[in-house]
């Protein structure tokens, strides 16, 4: 098959095929007498793969790596690349939704006032910029390196993880998953909480920023659907879950990020969806979070939940360990 036929079969340009060849993504054979490219079925399959990965937004360098893993039959590494790409795409999608909402507010202001003062434009743009910066996620804790010791640490480190197993059991009791429901565990670690929800009969999905934690989760609980992601850009579309749970993870966010996290949880929940969170929490005034030892400010969490239309029930398990259940005051529309 010549390059023109290959391009027509795949619905792409000959120029694109030459570009992929130049980038080292494929190497079709050439006819000896004239040097024309000759595309076999394996070349066509490879081109289809390249086109699909490009359509998913994957950069050329990552496609090159992905093809090498396919050639080496390393499915695990290929899965990591695809999950990373999916996580990046969802983060961009959430950011795009935010930009659309900013444009909608500008349109509404103009519709009502028949004018759009420069100060209003600036304030809306500034608010959008601040939100974008707040959504920036960075692993400052090195969870990939901690994954191998995670299950030991959560049971031995009584400072960071007091009453760990009891807290997880209370989350399941309060969230009350039932057979046929679909739940999401955010900051799942090695999947201990997701596993308990599985035992209760729910179908579970789990999100974590650490690929090594997710590997451990899949080994322990192969039935759990795992996704690379974080609180600020959950890698799921709107209205997918009956409940969201999380344990000893929300405290890693700043105060302003916590409000965004609650909004993201609400987005992926169904109209009657509930939230249950266990973590170290301080009773003092709301402020910056981010300490795995002191915990997050309880008033700020309760305020964020109530602002988003939830009523809350609080269990205090110790001096700082709390379990918060949040149920919607009335059914909300996802998104």
TrEMBL record:
Keywords: DNA-binding
GO function terms (MF aspect): DNA binding; DNA-binding transcription factor activity; S-adenosylmethionine-dependent methyltransferase activity
Keyword Ligase carried by entry: no
Lineage top rank: taxon: Bacteria
Pfam families in UniProt: MerR_1 (PF13411), Methyltransf_11 (PF08241)
Domain HTH merR-type: 1-69
Name of this chain's protein: Putative transcriptional regulator
InterPro entries: DNA-bd_dom_put_sf, MerR-type_HTH_dom, MerR_fam, Methyltransf_11, SAM-dependent_MTases_sf
């Amino acid at each position: 098959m010549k390059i023109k036929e290959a391009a027509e079969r795949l619905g792409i340009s000959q120029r694109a095929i030459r570009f992929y060849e130049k980038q080292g993504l494929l190497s079709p054979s050439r006819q000896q007498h004239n040097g024309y490219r000759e595309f076999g079925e394996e070349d066509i399959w490879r081109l289809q793969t390249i086109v699909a990965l490009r359509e998913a937004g994957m950069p050329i360098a990552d496609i090159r790596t992905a093809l090498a893993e396919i050639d080496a039959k390393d499915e695990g590494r290929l899965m990591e690349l695809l999950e990373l790409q999916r996580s990046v795409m969802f983060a961009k999608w959430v950011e795009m939704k935010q930009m659309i909402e900013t444009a909608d507010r500008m349109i509404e202001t103009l519709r009502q006032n028949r004018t759009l003062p420069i100060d209003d434009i600036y304030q809306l743009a500034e608010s959008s910029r601040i939100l974008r910066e707040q959504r920036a996620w960075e692993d400052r804790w090195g969870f990939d390196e901690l994954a191998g010791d995670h299950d030991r640490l959560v049971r031995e480190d009584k400072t960071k993880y007091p009453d760990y197993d009891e807290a997880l059991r209370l989350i399941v009791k309060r969230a009350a998953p039932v057979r046929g429901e679909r739940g999401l565990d955010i900051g799942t670690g090695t999947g201990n909480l997701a596993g308990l929800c599985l035992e209760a009969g729910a179908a579970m999905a789990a999100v974590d920023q650490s690929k090594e934690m997710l590997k451990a989760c899949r080994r322990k609980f192969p039935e759990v659907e795992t996704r690379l992601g974080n609180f600020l850009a959950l890698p799921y579309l709107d209205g997918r879950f009956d409940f969201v749970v999380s344990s000893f993870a929300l405290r890693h966010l700043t105060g302003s990020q916590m409000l965004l996290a609650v909004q993201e949880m609400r987005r992926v929940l169904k109209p009657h969806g509930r939230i249950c969170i266990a973590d170290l929490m301080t009773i003092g005034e709301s402020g910056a979070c981010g300490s795995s030892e002191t915990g997050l400010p309880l008033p700020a969490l309760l305020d964020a939940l109530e602002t988003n239309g939830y009523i809350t029930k609080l269990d205090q398990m110790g001096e700082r360990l709390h379990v918060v259940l949040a149920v919607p005051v009335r059914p909300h529309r996802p998104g």
